[in-house]
Amino acid sequence: MRLARMGSFHPTRLSFLRVLLRRLRRDNWQFDRPVWRVDRRGEGVAVYRVCGKGRTYSLVAFPHHLDPAKRTDRVIAEEWDATFVLHDGEVSEADIARLAANVPYQEAGRCSAEEIVLSRANKSVRLFDYVVGRLAAGEQPDSAELDAVGYLMRTTAVYANGKFGLADRERIAGRIEFAGPFAAEMLSIWLIRAFTVDWADHLAAARAPDSAVRLDTGLRRRLGVGNATGLGMAPFLINHPSLLDSWMGARETALARVRAIRRAGSDRVARFVELVAQAQAQASQWRTGDEVQSRRIAGLAADLAALRADLRDSPFDRSYPWDALFDWSAAHLGEEAQELLLALLLEPHGDLVDDLAACMVSDEEREFVIDGGMTIGALAALLRQHYAFAFEIDFTKPTAQALFWYVSEEKLEPRLGRRDEEPGAEREQPLTVARDVVALAKALELHHETYSVASFLAGAPEFRQIVRRVQIAARRPYAEIRDNLIDAVVRPIDLLRCKLSFFGATRFDPKSDRWVRITLFENAPFPDELHARPDDDWAFGPPGAQAT
Amino acid sequence: MHVSLNEIEYEVRKAARGAGLVWGQAEEAGKAARWLAARNVDALPALADLLDAHAEGRLGIKMDVTGSPWRGADGPVSPLVAGPVVVDHAFVLAAHGRIELDAMPRPIMLAPFAAAAARLVGATIDLVQSTCRTPFTGEGASRAALGALLPIETTNRIWCVRSPGHIPTPAAHSSNTGPNIDPDVWNRLSRLARRTYVPASTLSHERGAGAGAIDND
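YS: structure for the whole thing
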């Protein structure tokens, strides 16, 4: 549970978008597009409908004509190329009119409790116009150009969970289709992906009605939806320790199940070997301008070549072959490759691990209760047992508290400031876990070890939050990140990458140490082909792909 | 105005912190507000009164639990402070059956905590005042009982008592929409919540959020 490793995570078959698509396919959800009222400039409204389990959801898309000078990914943007909302049920014309008056304004508008997800997306300026131009000329775009970017549009925020008046989690939590974490958000993004292609097709036809063609279905699958994420997402893993533990626990359990396999079936082995080749090809497409990540990708490429060489030499007919491979990787490969290998080990074993997706939830309300009957002595022992990393930190060094997390008044979003240079540290957000642990340990020393935690907290309420955390961490091994989150060297993108890997994100592309681009649903089927395509085997690219 | 339960929870959390409660108490206040709103009990005006009192230093945040009744250690008792302390001491309720609390304003804000204590103890917990008795199970209390508790501005001594009594039908947890909120009350909360934000500066613009100079391609 260190940031460096969490920042090397790769998506697995337990990621949320994979889980969603498996469920939509298995439960025979149907998809159509009952509304497409988009003019020649590309403005208007579209509705993408999904139906299943007796329910209907409608993604309402509002494409706009955006002045390029106003296009920005930052939260302070006020206009976007397209805005979206996922509505619970069918949409009436009255709904569309109401949504048209609010959704394009995003945070400045209001949604009703019948809207579940609110989002917006901007064009990839590099790719979008190129694709429209080619299609208008009656030609397909070059696949290398598509692969260089990976998406036509990228979302810059995806809101749910009661924000801005949207439906609370309670409204949808009992529905099997939304049982998994972020399922509604993933569904929305998947439908947005379909929109991005439809919009490009539409604009090409508007430009050149006689010659335009539509994007080839094989080519379009290479495109995902991009996403630009900054610090807004960073505190999540810290603020949801029991949920984080559930996610990590599912992953680790899945890995343990595969490592426990005594004899590897030949079909699994064949699939695994094919996957390594596909992963190698995918890695060769992974582009970033970030130096640190570029070096890691280069290391990954070398490690994958070493892995393929090892696979040629090492027989799979020994006992516990997957375990042996995992151990070999820990000794011979860097973290990027180790984490990718974890994903590859799980991939051919869906029948063994997919059920763990149901464990990736947590009843955070139940977990929220403090055990006041615990003694000070027992609590102090928990601190020593579970927070050794905190006691190794020298807080007298200025670097140990160089940063502070805060919420900006301007856009109500999390930011990271330098304590010695910027104002606001007195309004610091409570993400100072290691420091709080040390302070708690000191305070506990003032009391007899049989004193109850309840009595202690009555007179020292400032420790309520950290005591709650410590008690959670004591029973949940993956709840706590074992790093100092206010240290000068903290890289918030490690938090982002970890969470995004659980979403299923690929093409991790850091733009700074606190802002990143990723792609979701790359290679996935589209709604109109979900049932026609073979099973859940698309994540690592088309079969037969070769590394360049 | 319509707000979601999530918005209520997070706005109240920030407002409580802005009013001077510690983060742990602020989180608990947010969840308490959510619990009541989910049962269609509009306790936000009462909560706003409490938070204004905290902000003005008229209520404390620490408790002295050495004697009986439990009293405030650094100021008069607040239900936002006493509630979590009672839940912490669920083992006392389990063993001895009662906890006595000093006088306090707005006892409605004890309701979510009484329910939590009832769940932990596995029994009905009654909130007993001189004028009324409100039974709680882990699911909550009846709509009528919560309705009777809501308008009480202050109470004298109040007891949390483990009771063998009947289990009332709890007010249903409404999962549909959040309650209708008075915008003036919401503004009072937002004013306090703003105290937790840091205003922008040029430096924060360059450094703080995320996207760098070129975020568009």
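YS: worth flagging: Chain A has 22 helices and eleven strands.
IM: good catch. Also Chain A touches chain B through 73 residues (CB under 8 Å).
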